[in-house]
Write a structure and sequence with these properties.
Layout: H1 2-28, H2 41-63, H3 71-96, H4 104-111, H5 114-125, H6 133-150, H7 162-185, H8 191-212, H9 224-252, H10 254-257, H11 260-276, H12 282-298, H13 300-320
Helix pairs in contact: 1-4, 1-9, 1-11, 2-3, 2-8, 2-9, 3-7, 3-8, 4-7, 4-11, 4-12, 5-6, 5-7, 6-12, 8-9
Subcellular location: Membrane
Membrane topology: Multi-pass membrane protein
Pfam families: EamA (PF00892)
């Protein structure tokens, strides 16, 4: 029963985070219709976590008797999460998604490299999670997949979304490294508390960056679409989504939970098509396939062990029906 519950949470998280890529595009606006946060992407990310952080802190006060981090390990976890998982990942992602050449699906596919990058970082920081020769090949294939998806033109590297896609790639690096480092620290305190303070810390850092690069709230055009995007990203994708993420991180580990990145692009493509008319390119599809093959190489032993058990459970489930 616990396994099925984990699967349900996993699919829910994939759907919520996949749709978030579309919501980011909607909230940012476009150069031809620069409503929303097109000129202030980092501020957009900061406001998202202002709201989400306050909501989660209130929930942490209600649900736990430990709403404030204590000790060096707990605060170290908050710092790592704030800098990498929240500020680094989201600032780079939001800036990258301002480029109209980057569709929701393309951004989600680049982020799907996270499990491959996580494996590389785990080899350095979590020696128990070994990276074999096949694992190294999988890591390299993942990088090739991003290169294919970026479709760089040597004669014009600053257009066509190449720089934006590289920024999103850097965001994926931040997320993967943050996932591994928080697991390495392994501070034992409530998930609600960790999530709340990580969000608030990330929001503060992004506000500092936003001011530093000259963004201003006066440049924001508030529309109904913008408010819906902020509401969805703050409450559903952030407050609820990251609560599910950290629960699964604790249950499954850094490598397994980041596999959500391989399902999220499906929902990103569907919502991008339904709400914004975005059509994934051939490079998006091919890049995703190459990245996924890299993942299969990385996890081939785990998959080999898991398939017989999965067949037994499916057979048992069919018998009960």
């Amino acid at each position: 029963m616990t396994r099925y519950r984990n699967v349900g949470l996993f699919l829910f998280l994939a759907a919520v985070w996949g749709a978030a890529f579309m919501a980011i595009k909607a909230g940012l606006g476009t150069p031809s219709d620069p409503g929303g946060f097109f000129e202030t992407p980092v501020l957009f990310a900061a406001i998202r976590y202002d709201v989400a952080g306050v909501l989660m802190l209130g929930y942490a006060v209600y649900a736990t008797d430990h709403p404030v981090p204590r000790g060096r390990d707990e605060w170290a976890t908050v710092v790592v999460g704030s800098v990498l998982i929240m500020a680094g990942y989201h600032a780079l992602l939001f800036i990258g998604e301002t480029d109209p050449a980057v569709t929701s699906a393309a951004a989600a596919v680049i982020v799907s490299l996270s499990p491959v990058l996580t494996a590389g970082f785990a080899r350095a920081f979590l020696p128990v999670e070994r990276l074999t020769t096949f694992g190294l090949a999988g890591l390299l294939l993942g990088l090739v997949g991003v290169a294919i998806l970026s479709d760089p033109d040597p004669n014009n590297l600053l257009t066509g979304g190449t720089v934006a896609k590289l920024l999103i790639f850097a965001a994926a690096i931040c997320f993967a490294l943050g996932s591994v480092l928080t697991r390495r620290i392994d501070a034992d305190f409530p998930i609600e508390t960790m999530e709340a303070w990580t969000m608030l810390g990330g929001a503060v850092l992004m506000h500092i960056v936003s001011v530093g690069i000259g963004e201003s709230v006066s440049d924001v055009t508030w529309t109904g679409e913008t408010l819906l995007a902020v509401g969805y990203l703050s409450v559903v994708a952030s407050a609820i989504g990251f609560l599910v993420y950290f629960v699964l991180l604790e249950r499954l580990g850094a490598l397994e939970i980041n596999l959500v990145s391989y399902v999220a692009p499906v929902f990103a493509a569907l919502t991008g098509w339904l709400f914004r008319g975005e059509i994934p390119t051939v490079y998006t599809v091919v890049g995703f396939i190459v990245i996924f093959v890299g993942f299969l190489l990385l996890k081939r032993e785990s998959l080999r062990r898991e398939l017989p058990r999965l067949r037994r459970e499916l057979k048992t489930f069919g018998t009960r029906e």
